[in-house]
């Protein structure tokens, strides 16, 4: 969920094209144990989903839904098999 202010990535034009920019940002940062379904549904139709997920993985974003994945789901990817 690209609402934070990045400091290193200079190619951030994709963030303006994210569907989450047009929706409720709180859905992408649910309370602990809260539903992520609404945010993930939005991500499904987002044209910059792959770029968003890549950004979150590279920058090790710890909170929120990015590229359709929760923090726990992203951690599984970076942890490997
Ligand atoms: S993939 Fe999801 S979190 Fe990322 S920009 Fe698109 S809507 Fe926002």
**Secondary structure tally: strands:** 0
Helical segment tally? Answer: 4
- What is the arithmetic mean of pLDDT? 89
Strand content: under 5%
Termini distance?
26 Å
Regions with pLDDT < 50 over 5+ consecutive residues? none
| Gyration radius from CA atoms, angstroms | 12 Å
Topology:
Elements: H1 13-16, H2 37-44, H3 49-58, H4 71-79
The site of iron/sulfur cluster has 16 residues, from helix 2 and helix 3.
Summarize the structure in words:
With 81 residues, this protein is mainly alpha-helical. It has one domain. 38% of the residues lie in helices and 0% in strands. The chain has four helices and no strands. The longest helix is centred in the middle third of the chain and has 10 residues. The mean pLDDT is 89. The structure holds iron/sulfur cluster. The site of iron/sulfur cluster has 16 residues, from helix 2 and helix 3.
Kindly summarize this structure in a few lines.
With 81 residues, the chain is mainly alpha-helical.
Features:
binds iron/sulfur cluster; 81 residues
